[in-house]
Amino acid sequence: MHALLHLLAFSPAPDPDLDGTAAVAAPAGLAARLDGELAALLEMSRSTLIGVALVLLIAWVLATIGPMAVRTAWRLGYDRRRRLGLLASVTRLAGLLLAFAGCLRPILSRAPTLGILLSLALLALLTLAAPAALRNLSAGLGLMTRTRMREGDLIEIGLERGPLRGTIRDIGLLRVSLRTAEGGLTHVPAADFDRLPVVVGSRRAAVPVEAHALVGPALDPAVLERLRRELWFSPFRRAGTELRVSHDSSSGRLELRIDTWAAQSPVEVEQHLRALLSRVLARSGTKHEPAALIEAASERADLPVSPLEVQP
Asked: Does residue 49 belong to any structural domain of this protein?
């Protein structure tokens, strides 16, 4: 707006006393201005281009490293109520705005008229070519406050082909990532959360799963710590839940327990726990015999005990 007022103030005005020749001066002045601004853009210095590249790099760091750091904090057990999810969205939005500002500032400072015209043309092109992206961005900005749902919630989306159930892994500006019960990752456009019915469940819902092995009465505490660390970073462990690694020296029984989101994938969880237990014990040189039972426990949840029994 300031650039347009500046253009109108300094453009030559037509003289009513002349025979109309001065009326052509205004378009000629605008064409000369646009030509001069285009020449100024083409003569942009190398330092300016390096500055733009640096701003774009900082914007990428904000939009990528910020959410990654938040997810790492969650996997380490911090912020169990997922309050840092808003910070992840803010860093994404800040990176997006910084990228636009870093690209537009050198253009508007050297070619304000041409920059405004190009910005309007780009906005019109995006509106016509990618209306779905604009709708997703608008819906994603509404989801970033986490008032409706947040990472770790169990949700059910009423799709036409059937309900889609999963755990929210990430809330982005354009889409929401869900971890389904089968273990896959599904990306749902943010606009669907305004268009379709969504049922949000408890973020504490999880199915406890136990694994046992006979390792003898003596077990190095470092092995227990290594098992705890491996279980903490397990992809089947529900984020924000506790785990248990215990060893009974009298019976030589080693017990592992995690709360998993994959309630309908017991075979995958069983194979994962057995492989993890065997790998850690083999690395430490501990002889063990796998127990004949991997079961879903219900000590801290109002869930029935699963009848699944696996014979080794």
From this structure: yes
pLDDT of 214 higher than 90:
no
Can you give the residue range of the structural domain that contains 242?
A: 207-296
Query: Residue 295's pLDDT band (boundaries 50, 70, 90)?
Result: very low
Please tell me whether residue 148 adopts helix, strand or coil conformation: coil
**For residues 65 and 172, what is the distance between their CA atoms, to the nearest angstrom?**
14
| Predicted pLDDT of residue 194 | 87
Looking at residue 306, the DSSP 8-state letter turns out to be: P
CATH of the domain at 226: 3.30.70.100
Backbone angles phi and psi of 217, in degrees to 5: -70, -30
CB 176 within 8 A of CB 191: no
Other C-beta atoms lying within 10 Å of the C-beta of residue 156: 14
Same domain, 95 and 25: yes
Do the Cβ atoms of 183 and 262 come closer than 8 Å?
A: yes
Cβ atoms 41, 114 nearer than 8 A: yes
Tell me the pTM.
0.55
pLDDT band at residue 307, thresholds of 50, 70 and 90? very low
Which pair of tokens denotes residue 152?
């770790």
Structure letter (DSSP) for residue 143: H
Cβ 135 vs Cβ 191: under 8 Å: yes
Q: Do 146 and 113 form a contact (C-beta atoms < 8 A)?
A: no
What is the domain count for the chain?
3
In angstroms, the Cα distances linking 293 to 17, 128, 200, 210, 273 are 102, 59, 33, 9, 12
Return the ∠ at Cα 302 (arms to 300 and 304), rounded to 5°.
105
